[in-house]
Amino acid sequence: MALTPDGAAPGAAVPDGAAPGAEPPVPPVPDLLATATEAARREDATLPPPPALLRRVMDAVRAEPRRPGLALVLSDVPGARVEVAEAAAVRVLRAAVDGLGDVRAGACRVAVDGTAEQRVLRVTLTVTARAGLPLPELAERVRARVAAAGEEAFGLPVAAVDVTVADVT
């Protein structure tokens, strides 16, 4: 982009009273900056956003606020209590779903149910699926992946994985 101080294109006519070949008067700096800023905005409006930026924004939008200290009690054995923050459990399970490739995990809730002798995990998850996929089969793949990841990471059986397909892209 060629920008001249007076906003004229190079080779334009000389203003009245100016000698040919003489430099045109320089406008005040704020006017020059305003002209350059407007030209940059017009140019930037035609460019698509970088894919990484869009992904980071969408990850922030999908993130769920969590109360600090919310914990899932995996084992309540005296002297050997095991807790994991729900936010950490959610990250593990969402990463497992995102690893499938055809689906993105959205909102996720994890709860520990059962008695002290027999604890189980219950997971509620929303997902965004890729268009054209059979959704019942996709939901079963998500359930299987979440159950395996939950049992491996937390050492508890996963009693239920409720999957809601919230969007198709």
Automatic annotation (TrEMBL):
Low complexity bias locations: 1-21
Domain of life: Bacteria
Residue span of region Disordered: 1-50
Protein name (database record): Asp23 family, cell envelope-related function
